[in-house]
Specification:
Oligomer: homodimer
Number of helices of chain A: 14
Distance between the termini of chain A: 29 Å
CATH architecture of the largest domain in chain A: 2-Layer Sandwich
Shape of chain A: globular
CATH class of the largest domain in chain A: Alpha Beta
Strand order of the largest sheet of chain A: 14-11-13-12-16-17-15
Chain lengths: 452, 452
């Protein structure tokens, strides 16, 4: 017995994927880095497996403790340690909630470069360990690019401190990148210094109706050539909008439905609003844009964002679903979409919807159950069985297009059997060799990421 | 005999540091990646040392072949392979000259994110292997952040291909970062895909006179808080300006000399010129700014840039010099400067000048010979002997401030004995362990970066 009640047991033993069953006996909640280091060294000596645990908002099973591991939660190490106005940057412990850092940065007059749906409960250490993406990647890049300093303990029990006060440090190989995005298999993040971005002065939102996903990308290309640097360029198709409208009871944004929707945000202090409107008008004439709705207030902007941000929740509340987090070369999306639609056509009561960070070449593809008989009230197990073969079909398709089977969610337990479709055998072998270097006893998050 | 004449021998056997003497017998100029891979595999099997060689514009001896190694020049692999308009990105071979990529990007309506003094002869492969910095880092970050795809051959002879068509690929540890900035000790870069930036629309340059280096940083902090994102924020002191004026015979930029000069560039299409002028006026009132000279044409802008870009050349043509490439936490620069001045005061005919990328927390400190008797016509050997002890003093000072002994130039042969001042013993040991993983026979650039 772990001394935890059932809710706590489920809470600490897995992430949001929730498809794996927890099985662990011990939960540790260290209060400071020294305690974490002591735990790692003890576990190394006694060959005890550890699962590092942040906000557990992952979607790939990376934080599942299902084989009697010890869960090591960083949640009590949640102090903001320092604001460095001249970089500018924040230094903090691994367990700080991401939204807390967003608030802190805004108070200092800057912008935290990371925003994602889980910001309210994800922790920065977990975000770094998974190289988190989200809605600001198009402007700021992945979280990796903003990490200045890092303090980690390796599986061997060594503490590595990468200095947080300096932006440039070309003194040989930069080892901190081995830990960013490694999902806790090489080391545990204890502390980080994250650079802050200049805050946009007049964020401006428009919803654009487009004939298809390919045209959406042509539009982005033209905006960039004219000098616009979008803050967001999010896509969703008519299928997504229908589910959102049904679940959240919101109105149709345009007079009539269009095949695809782009939520564009940019800083009108950087790129003049009237110049943008002139560009849009030209694109309407050329039939690239079918409909346009600018937000004229922050309330209207929030309403438009709700259409995009409500998608995941609306799907999980009303449908059975299989989710894919796909990166592809930009020119492959239209063909990929057609292929996935064709795959689903062969199955009864199932269809795909497409949404996500199109500006980053990253879509979240959801295969959902159609019709009333297969709603959440129906049998999820049956849906998963009926659609069981589609995973491999979709992952193979992605592999054949030189895409990524996990653009931002990571590999965890969920996708490790498909890893070879995005990474070569020799590369996976190097991952294994680095595991032997950084975690020779194999105590950190065993069974995750690297196939057996 | 290598069959090379003396000029070719010196050209291919060392970099711009020129303080080490080449000693090699064989120069290879492969024409394609397969040939490079074949050479590496052959050398691994027969235990032959290789020095990967790009444009040899480095300043740390990273490309020196001084122990009978084989020089492997990538210079003939200089094809631009593909433009990807939707990322946007360029895919090219390792030997393409950096300025060529700048031109190519501009032709496509975008901006190559890297610019540095050596752009006319440095090769992109070498730039990646040293994670090059330069004058655009303040806006775009180091080159590392712009590398999408990479093809490398490890010292073990394995080819790793990191896909260049996708921006997001969270499929476990991202191994390409082991090769970026590793100075050729883990692998040889064969091909790269580099993202392009949105081109600035109205680049605008002003020269600002400041009372000292600390105030310069306060000015930057205020500009950023107001929402300005500089394209450049370069510093030089009065000592630098005197040497440039003497060598290039240019006029004093202000009515009277000031202690420090900041060359600020920003995009006036993003941040209004008149708003900036109002800010500057407020700073003049508060005595942060002593003098201001805006460039009102591209000719005037080029004249201002010449003051900054002429420094290195003017110093090497007129003085003996010891160079340091220093990163420090921003608030430490004023104290560091005072300490270096004090160190030099103890030596005859020697003084320091300070210039560089202050906005990145990176200064190039040059200790130069003063007075006519120690000009280039004097004895360089004598100068180096007289000032021999200062290296360790300066590096120790940097280490004590948690700075970097090499912000952008790398370690090479020149600084490996000081590496422990910027990296911990356990970290250096991990570098060594990764060397065993990626280059088990130790054939790639032996003796560089990692201390013996």
């Amino acid at each position: 017995g772990s001394g935890l009640n059932e809710a706590e047991f489920l809470e600490y033993g897995r992430d949001r994927l929730a498809q794996f069953h927890p099985d662990f006996d011990l939960l540790l909640l260290p209060d400071n880095p020294d305690e974490v280091v002591a735990v790692v060294r003890y576990c190394k000596e006694h060959n005890l497996a550890l699962v590092p645990s942040g906000g557990r908002t992952g979607l790939a099973g990376g934080a599942v403790a299902g084989q009697g591991e010890i869960v090591l939660s960083l949640g009590r190490m949640n102090r903001v340690l320092e604001f460095q106005p001249r970089l500018p940057a924040i230094r903090c412990e691994a367990g700080v909630i991401t939204a807390e850092l967003q608030r802190y940065a805004a108070e200092q007059g800057f912008c935290f470069p990371l925003d994602l749906a889980a910001a309210g409960s994800s922790q920065i250490g977990g975000n770094i360990a998974t190289n988190a993406g989200g809605t600001r990647v198009i402007r700021y890049g992945m979280l990796r690019d903003w990490i200045v300093g890092l303090k980690v303990v390796t599986g061997a029990g060594d503490v590595l401190t990468f200095p947080g006060g300096i932006l440039k440090n070309n003194t040989g190989p930069d080892l901190k990148h081995a830990f960013i995005g490694s999902e806790g298999i090489y080391g545990i993040i204890l502390e980080a210094t994250i650079r802050l971005a200049i805050a946009p002065r007049q964020p401006t939102t428009v919803l654009i109706g487009v004939p298809d996903i390919d045209v959406a990308q042509v539009i982005l290309q033209e905006l960039r050539r004219q000098g616009m640097q979008p803050l967001a360029f999010e896509f969703f198709d008519q299928g997504c909008l229908e589910i959102v409208r049904e679940h959240l009871n919101v109105a149709e944004p345009f007079r009539e439905p269009v095949p695809g929707y782009v939520l564009l945000e940019w800083d009108a202090a950087e790129f003049d609003f009237d110049d943008a409107v002139t560009m849009f008008a030209g694109m309407e004439e050329r039939h690239l844009i079918r409909a346009l709705r600018p937000a004229t207030s922050s309330t209207q902007s929030a309403e438009l964002w709700r259409l995009r941000e409500g998608i995941s929740e609306s799907i999980s509340m009303t449908r059975h679903v299989r989710k894919y987090d796909v990166s592809l070369p930009a020119e492959c999306f239209a063909g990929f979409q057609a292929n996935v639609i064709a795959l689903c056509r062969d199955m009864a009561h199932v269809y795909p919807v497409f949404f996500g960070h199109l500006g980053d070449g990253n879509l979240h593809v959801n295969i959902v159950s159609s019709g009333a008989e297969s709603r959440r009230t129906g049998d999820s197990h049956e849906f998963m069985e009926d659609t069981g073969n589609i995973d491999m079909e979709i992952y193979k398709l992605i592999g054949s297009l030189n895409g990524s089977i996990s653009a931002e969610h990571g590999i965890g337990l969920l996708k490790k059997d498909y890893l070879h479709l995005s990474r070569s055998a020799v590369e996976i072998d190097y991952m294994r060799q680095l595991k032997s270097v950084f975690d020779p006893a194999g105590i950190l998050n065993p069974g995750k990421v690297i196939p057996d």
